[in-house]
Protein backbone atom coordinates (compact mmCIF):
# COMPACT_ATOMS: atom_id res chain seq x y z
CA UNK A 1 0.00 0.00 0.00
CA UNK A 2 1.46 3.37 -1.05
CA UNK A 3 1.56 6.08 1.60
CA UNK A 4 1.38 9.76 0.71
CA UNK A 5 4.09 11.91 2.36
CA UNK A 6 2.49 14.77 4.30
CA UNK A 7 5.15 17.33 3.41
CA UNK A 8 6.80 16.28 0.13
CA UNK A 9 9.52 18.23 -1.62
CA UNK A 10 8.51 19.79 -4.93
CA UNK A 11 10.37 17.10 -6.89
CA UNK A 12 8.80 14.28 -4.88
CA UNK A 13 5.33 15.80 -5.30
CA UNK A 14 5.85 15.95 -9.07
CA UNK A 15 7.20 12.39 -9.16
CA UNK A 16 4.17 11.02 -7.29
CA UNK A 17 1.72 13.08 -9.37
CA UNK A 18 3.31 11.95 -12.62
CA UNK A 19 4.07 8.31 -11.91
CA UNK A 20 1.71 6.79 -9.35
CA UNK A 21 -0.86 4.45 -10.88
CA UNK A 22 -4.40 3.68 -9.82
CA UNK A 23 -3.33 0.96 -7.35
CA UNK A 24 -1.08 3.46 -5.56
CA UNK A 25 -3.91 5.99 -5.29
CA UNK A 26 -6.63 3.53 -4.32
CA UNK A 27 -6.23 3.94 -0.51
CA UNK A 28 -6.61 7.72 -0.91
CA UNK A 29 -9.64 7.31 -3.18
CA UNK A 30 -11.19 4.79 -0.77
CA UNK A 31 -10.82 7.29 2.06
CA UNK A 32 -12.53 10.00 -0.03
CA UNK A 33 -15.37 7.63 -0.96
CA UNK A 34 -15.98 6.54 2.65
CA UNK A 35 -15.83 10.15 3.87
CA UNK A 36 -18.48 11.34 1.40
CA UNK A 37 -20.66 8.26 1.04
CA UNK A 38 -19.67 7.48 -2.54
CA UNK A 39 -20.34 3.83 -3.37
CA UNK A 40 -17.86 3.54 -6.23
CA UNK A 41 -18.33 0.46 -8.39
CA UNK A 42 -15.57 1.50 -10.79
CA UNK A 43 -12.46 3.71 -10.61
CA UNK A 44 -10.26 4.85 -13.49
CA UNK A 45 -7.33 7.22 -13.85
CA UNK A 46 -7.14 10.04 -16.40
CA UNK A 47 -3.60 10.77 -17.57
CA UNK A 48 -4.41 13.91 -19.56
CA UNK A 49 -3.83 16.57 -16.87
CA UNK A 50 -0.82 17.73 -14.89
CA UNK A 51 -2.40 16.67 -11.57
CA UNK A 52 -3.80 13.22 -10.73
CA UNK A 53 -7.40 12.98 -11.97
CA UNK A 54 -9.78 10.05 -11.50
CA UNK A 55 -13.29 9.08 -12.52
CA UNK A 56 -15.45 7.32 -9.95
CA UNK A 57 -18.66 5.61 -11.03
CA UNK A 58 -21.35 5.22 -8.41
CA UNK A 59 -24.27 2.82 -8.78
CA UNK A 60 -27.68 4.45 -8.85
CA UNK A 61 -29.78 3.92 -5.75
CA UNK A 62 -33.27 2.44 -5.69
CA UNK A 63 -34.81 5.87 -5.18
CA UNK A 64 -33.06 7.56 -8.11
CA UNK A 65 -35.42 8.78 -10.81
CA UNK A 66 -32.52 8.58 -13.25
CA UNK A 67 -31.39 4.96 -13.15
CA UNK A 68 -28.09 5.64 -14.92
CA UNK A 69 -24.93 5.24 -12.88
CA UNK A 70 -23.49 8.55 -11.68
CA UNK A 71 -19.88 9.60 -12.29
CA UNK A 72 -17.64 11.96 -10.36
CA UNK A 73 -14.26 13.45 -11.17
CA UNK A 74 -11.71 13.54 -8.36
CA UNK A 75 -8.73 15.86 -8.65
CA UNK A 76 -5.86 15.38 -6.18
CA UNK A 77 -3.21 18.05 -5.65
CA UNK A 78 -0.03 17.91 -3.61
CA UNK A 79 0.25 20.40 -0.74
CA UNK A 80 2.90 22.16 -2.85
CA UNK A 81 0.16 23.22 -5.27
CA UNK A 82 -2.18 24.85 -2.78
CA UNK A 83 -2.51 28.01 -4.89
CA UNK A 84 -3.80 25.97 -7.83
CA UNK A 85 -6.21 24.11 -5.55
CA UNK A 86 -7.45 27.38 -4.08
CA UNK A 87 -8.07 28.85 -7.55
CA UNK A 88 -10.18 25.90 -8.66
CA UNK A 89 -12.00 25.54 -5.33
CA UNK A 90 -12.96 29.23 -5.10
CA UNK A 91 -13.89 29.45 -8.78
CA UNK A 92 -16.16 26.39 -8.78
CA UNK A 93 -17.69 27.30 -5.44
CA UNK A 94 -18.66 30.68 -6.93
CA UNK A 95 -19.77 29.37 -10.31
CA UNK A 96 -22.10 26.80 -8.71
CA UNK A 97 -24.42 29.81 -8.21
CA UNK A 98 -24.22 31.37 -11.69
CA UNK A 99 -25.30 30.46 -15.20
CA UNK A 100 -22.75 31.49 -17.82
CA UNK A 101 -24.22 30.01 -20.99
CA UNK A 102 -21.83 27.03 -20.98
CA UNK A 103 -21.69 24.36 -18.29
CA UNK A 104 -18.87 24.24 -15.75
CA UNK A 105 -18.52 21.38 -13.23
CA UNK A 106 -20.46 21.49 -9.98
CA UNK A 107 -18.30 21.22 -6.88
CA UNK A 108 -19.62 18.47 -4.61
CA UNK A 109 -16.94 17.83 -1.99
CA UNK A 110 -13.47 19.01 -1.01
CA UNK A 111 -10.90 18.32 1.68
CA UNK A 112 -7.54 16.68 2.22
CA UNK A 113 -6.08 13.24 2.85
CA UNK A 114 -2.62 13.14 4.47
CA UNK A 115 -2.34 16.86 3.68
CA UNK A 116 -2.95 16.20 -0.04
CA UNK A 117 -5.87 18.28 -1.30
CA UNK A 118 -8.79 17.00 -3.33
CA UNK A 119 -11.89 18.19 -5.15
CA UNK A 120 -14.84 15.97 -6.05
CA UNK A 121 -16.65 17.53 -8.98
CA UNK A 122 -19.28 16.78 -11.59
CA UNK A 123 -18.30 14.83 -14.69
CA UNK A 124 -19.50 16.90 -17.61
CA UNK A 125 -20.84 15.41 -20.81
CA UNK A 126 -18.50 15.44 -23.80
CA UNK A 127 -14.94 14.88 -24.95
CA UNK A 128 -12.02 17.29 -25.11
CA UNK A 129 -12.15 19.53 -28.16
CA UNK A 130 -8.41 18.95 -28.62
CA UNK A 131 -9.09 15.29 -29.47
CA UNK A 132 -11.25 16.17 -32.49
CA UNK A 133 -10.13 19.70 -33.40
CA UNK A 134 -8.70 18.66 -36.76
CA UNK A 135 -12.07 17.15 -37.74
CA UNK A 136 -13.92 20.45 -37.34
CA UNK A 137 -14.52 22.93 -40.14
CA UNK A 138 -13.63 26.59 -39.69
CA UNK A 139 -17.37 27.29 -39.40
CA UNK A 140 -17.75 24.81 -36.53
CA UNK A 141 -14.74 26.29 -34.74
CA UNK A 142 -16.18 29.78 -35.25
CA UNK A 143 -19.45 28.67 -33.66
CA UNK A 144 -17.55 27.35 -30.63
CA UNK A 145 -15.42 30.50 -30.47
CA UNK A 146 -18.55 32.67 -30.50
CA UNK A 147 -20.04 30.75 -27.56
CA UNK A 148 -16.70 30.83 -25.75
CA UNK A 149 -16.50 34.60 -26.15
CA UNK A 150 -20.01 34.92 -24.71
CA UNK A 151 -19.01 32.71 -21.77
CA UNK A 152 -15.96 34.92 -21.15
CA UNK A 153 -18.13 38.05 -21.20
CA UNK A 154 -20.44 36.64 -18.52
CA UNK A 155 -17.52 35.34 -16.46
CA UNK A 156 -15.89 38.76 -16.46
CA UNK A 157 -19.11 40.43 -15.31
CA UNK A 158 -19.42 38.48 -12.06
CA UNK A 159 -19.70 40.77 -9.03
CA UNK A 160 -16.29 41.88 -7.76
CA UNK A 161 -17.07 41.19 -4.12
CA UNK A 162 -17.47 37.49 -4.99
CA UNK A 163 -13.96 37.09 -6.46
CA UNK A 164 -11.85 38.76 -3.76
CA UNK A 165 -10.03 35.56 -2.82
CA UNK A 166 -8.70 35.28 -6.38
CA UNK A 167 -7.57 38.89 -6.83
CA UNK A 168 -3.97 39.57 -7.81
CA UNK A 169 -1.97 42.66 -6.98
CA UNK A 170 -1.81 43.38 -10.70
CA UNK A 171 0.98 46.02 -10.74
CA UNK A 172 3.12 43.77 -8.54
CA UNK A 173 2.36 40.74 -10.73
CA UNK A 174 3.39 42.58 -13.91
CA UNK A 175 6.56 43.92 -12.28
CA UNK A 176 7.58 40.51 -10.93
CA UNK A 177 6.86 38.69 -14.19
CA UNK A 178 8.76 41.32 -16.17
CA UNK A 179 11.79 41.04 -13.88
CA UNK A 180 12.05 37.28 -14.29
CA UNK A 181 10.78 36.89 -17.87
CA UNK A 182 14.18 36.70 -19.57
CA UNK A 183 15.62 34.06 -17.23
CA UNK A 184 12.40 32.06 -17.27
CA UNK A 185 12.23 31.94 -21.07
CA UNK A 186 15.96 31.25 -21.32
CA UNK A 187 15.59 28.29 -18.96
CA UNK A 188 12.73 27.00 -21.13
CA UNK A 189 15.03 27.04 -24.16
CA UNK A 190 13.53 29.93 -26.14
CA UNK A 191 15.39 30.18 -29.49
CA UNK A 192 18.36 32.57 -29.38
CA UNK A 193 17.07 35.09 -31.95
CA UNK A 194 13.88 35.61 -29.95
CA UNK A 195 15.70 35.58 -26.63
CA UNK A 196 18.08 38.32 -27.82
CA UNK A 197 15.11 40.54 -28.72
CA UNK A 198 13.04 39.73 -25.65
CA UNK A 199 14.02 42.50 -23.22
CA UNK A 200 13.89 45.10 -25.99
CA UNK A 201 10.41 43.96 -26.99
CA UNK A 202 9.17 44.10 -23.40
CA UNK A 203 10.61 47.60 -22.91
CA UNK A 204 9.07 48.86 -26.16
CA UNK A 205 5.54 47.74 -25.32
CA UNK A 206 5.05 48.32 -21.60
CA UNK A 207 2.65 51.12 -22.59
CA UNK A 208 0.19 48.48 -23.85
CA UNK A 209 -0.41 47.38 -20.24
CA UNK A 210 -0.45 50.85 -18.67
CA UNK A 211 -4.19 51.47 -18.97
CA UNK A 212 -4.98 48.61 -16.57
CA UNK A 213 -2.11 48.84 -14.10
CA UNK A 214 -3.80 51.17 -11.65
CA UNK A 215 -7.41 50.13 -12.15
CA UNK A 216 -9.13 48.98 -8.99
CA UNK A 217 -11.77 46.78 -10.64
CA UNK A 218 -11.20 43.11 -11.35
CA UNK A 219 -12.59 40.31 -13.51
CA UNK A 220 -12.51 36.57 -12.93
CA UNK A 221 -10.21 35.20 -15.66
CA UNK A 222 -10.03 31.49 -16.47
CA UNK A 223 -6.66 32.14 -18.27
CA UNK A 224 -6.59 28.71 -19.97
CA UNK A 225 -9.45 28.54 -22.47
CA UNK A 226 -7.70 26.22 -24.90
CA UNK A 227 -9.12 23.10 -26.64
CA UNK A 228 -7.83 20.78 -23.89
CA UNK A 229 -10.19 22.48 -21.42
CA UNK A 230 -13.21 22.75 -23.73
CA UNK A 231 -15.68 19.87 -24.09
CA UNK A 232 -17.75 19.01 -27.14
CA UNK A 233 -20.28 16.33 -28.09
CA UNK A 234 -21.45 15.21 -31.53
CA UNK A 235 -25.10 15.95 -32.22
CA UNK A 236 -26.81 15.59 -35.60
CA UNK A 237 -23.46 15.15 -37.28
CA UNK A 238 -21.81 18.24 -35.76
CA UNK A 239 -19.77 18.82 -32.64
CA UNK A 240 -21.50 21.08 -30.12
CA UNK A 241 -19.85 22.96 -27.27
CA UNK A 242 -20.88 21.31 -23.98
CA UNK A 243 -18.59 22.46 -21.16
CA UNK A 244 -15.49 24.12 -19.74
CA UNK A 245 -13.16 22.52 -17.20
CA UNK A 246 -9.99 23.22 -15.20
CA UNK A 247 -10.06 26.49 -13.28
CA UNK A 248 -6.74 25.69 -11.59
CA UNK A 249 -5.03 28.76 -13.07
CA UNK A 250 -7.96 31.13 -12.62
CA UNK A 251 -7.32 34.57 -11.14
CA UNK A 252 -8.93 37.98 -10.81
CA UNK A 253 -7.29 41.00 -12.42
CA UNK A 254 -8.31 44.27 -14.09
CA UNK A 255 -7.14 43.36 -17.63
CA UNK A 256 -9.75 41.27 -19.50
CA UNK A 257 -7.43 40.91 -22.52
CA UNK A 258 -5.52 38.30 -20.48
CA UNK A 259 -8.42 35.95 -21.26
CA UNK A 260 -8.18 36.49 -25.01
CA UNK A 261 -4.70 35.02 -25.43
CA UNK A 262 -5.44 31.27 -25.16
CA UNK A 263 -8.38 31.27 -27.61
CA UNK A 264 -6.36 33.36 -30.07
CA UNK A 265 -3.33 31.09 -29.86
CA UNK A 266 -4.72 27.58 -29.54
CA UNK A 267 -8.31 27.69 -30.81
CA UNK A 268 -7.87 30.10 -33.73
CA UNK A 269 -4.49 28.58 -34.68
CA UNK A 270 -3.74 31.33 -37.16
CA UNK A 271 -7.28 31.66 -38.57
CA UNK A 272 -8.58 35.26 -38.19
CA UNK A 273 -12.27 34.29 -38.62
CA UNK A 274 -12.10 32.14 -35.48
CA UNK A 275 -10.54 34.78 -33.29
CA UNK A 276 -12.92 37.45 -34.60
CA UNK A 277 -15.80 35.12 -33.70
CA UNK A 278 -14.47 34.93 -30.13
CA UNK A 279 -14.22 38.73 -29.92
CA UNK A 280 -17.72 39.07 -31.40
CA UNK A 281 -19.12 36.70 -28.79
CA UNK A 282 -17.37 38.70 -26.10
CA UNK A 283 -18.78 41.94 -27.47
CA UNK A 284 -15.30 43.43 -27.66
CA UNK A 285 -15.63 47.06 -28.70
CA UNK A 286 -11.98 48.05 -28.86
CA UNK A 287 -9.83 48.34 -31.96
CA UNK A 288 -8.75 45.05 -33.51
CA UNK A 289 -5.31 46.12 -34.63
CA UNK A 290 -1.58 45.80 -34.05
CA UNK A 291 -1.91 47.46 -30.66
CA UNK A 292 -4.24 44.66 -29.48
CA UNK A 293 -1.83 42.04 -30.85
CA UNK A 294 1.06 43.65 -28.94
CA UNK A 295 -1.08 43.81 -25.79
CA UNK A 296 -1.76 40.09 -26.03
CA UNK A 297 1.88 39.30 -26.81
CA UNK A 298 3.00 41.15 -23.69
CA UNK A 299 0.52 39.25 -21.53
CA UNK A 300 1.54 35.94 -23.11
CA UNK A 301 5.22 36.60 -22.42
CA UNK A 302 4.50 37.64 -18.83
CA UNK A 303 1.95 34.97 -17.97
CA UNK A 304 2.72 32.84 -14.92
CA UNK A 305 2.28 29.47 -16.65
CA UNK A 306 3.09 27.96 -20.03
CA UNK A 307 6.05 27.54 -22.34
CA UNK A 308 6.54 29.84 -25.34
CA UNK A 309 8.25 26.98 -27.19
CA UNK A 310 5.00 25.00 -27.12
CA UNK A 311 3.27 27.86 -28.92
CA UNK A 312 6.04 28.15 -31.49
CA UNK A 313 5.62 24.44 -32.25
CA UNK A 314 1.81 24.38 -32.37
CA UNK A 315 0.70 27.67 -33.93
CA UNK A 316 1.03 27.32 -37.72
CA UNK A 317 4.08 28.83 -39.44
CA UNK A 318 5.75 29.94 -36.19
CA UNK A 319 8.34 27.21 -35.67
CA UNK A 320 11.18 29.07 -37.47
CA UNK A 321 10.09 32.66 -36.82
CA UNK A 322 12.93 34.82 -35.52
CA UNK A 323 11.32 38.10 -34.40
CA UNK A 324 8.46 39.08 -32.16
CA UNK A 325 6.89 41.53 -34.60
CA UNK A 326 6.32 38.78 -37.15
CA UNK A 327 4.90 36.51 -34.44
CA UNK A 328 2.32 39.10 -33.34
CA UNK A 329 0.13 38.57 -36.40
CA UNK A 330 0.61 34.79 -36.45
CA UNK A 331 -0.10 34.24 -32.76
CA UNK A 332 -3.05 36.66 -32.66
CA UNK A 333 -4.70 36.61 -36.11
CA UNK A 334 -6.85 39.62 -36.95
Automatic annotation (TrEMBL):
<dbReference type="InterPro" id="IPR000719">
    <property type="entry name" value="Prot_kinase_dom"/>
</dbReference>
<feature type="domain" description="Protein kinase">
    <location>
        <begin position="42"/>
        <end position="334"/>
    </location>
</feature>
<dbReference type="InterPro" id="IPR002575">
    <property type="entry name" value="Aminoglycoside_PTrfase"/>
</dbReference>
<dbReference type="Pfam" id="PF01636">
    <property type="entry name" value="APH"/>
</dbReference>
<dbReference type="InterPro" id="IPR011009">
    <property type="entry name" value="Kinase-like_dom_sf"/>
</dbReference>
<dbReference type="GO" id="GO:0004672">
    <property type="term" value="F:protein kinase activity"/>
</dbReference>
<protein>
    <submittedName>
        <fullName>Putative aminoglycoside phosphotransferase</fullName>
        <ecNumber>2.7.1.119</ecNumber>
    </submittedName>
</protein>
<dbReference type="InterPro" id="IPR051678">
    <property type="entry name" value="AGP_Transferase"/>
</dbReference>
<dbReference type="GO" id="GO:0005524">
    <property type="term" value="F:ATP binding"/>
</dbReference>
<dbReference type="GO" id="GO:0008904">
    <property type="term" value="F:hygromycin-B 7''-O-phosphotransferase activity"/>
</dbReference>
<dbReference type="InterPro" id="IPR016259">
    <property type="entry name" value="Hygromycin-B_Kinase"/>
</dbReference>
<keyword id="KW-0808">Transferase</keyword>
Amino acid sequence: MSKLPRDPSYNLACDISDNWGLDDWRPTLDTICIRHGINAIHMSQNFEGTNPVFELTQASSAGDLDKANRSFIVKVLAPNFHVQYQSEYLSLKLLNHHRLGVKVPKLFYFGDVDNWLYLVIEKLDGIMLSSVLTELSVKERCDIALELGNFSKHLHRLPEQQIEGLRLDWPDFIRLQTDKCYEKRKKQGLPDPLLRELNGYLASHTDKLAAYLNKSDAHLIHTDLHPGNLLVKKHDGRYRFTGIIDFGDALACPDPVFEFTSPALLLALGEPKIFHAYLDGYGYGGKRDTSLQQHMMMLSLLRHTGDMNYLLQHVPDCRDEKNWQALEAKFFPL
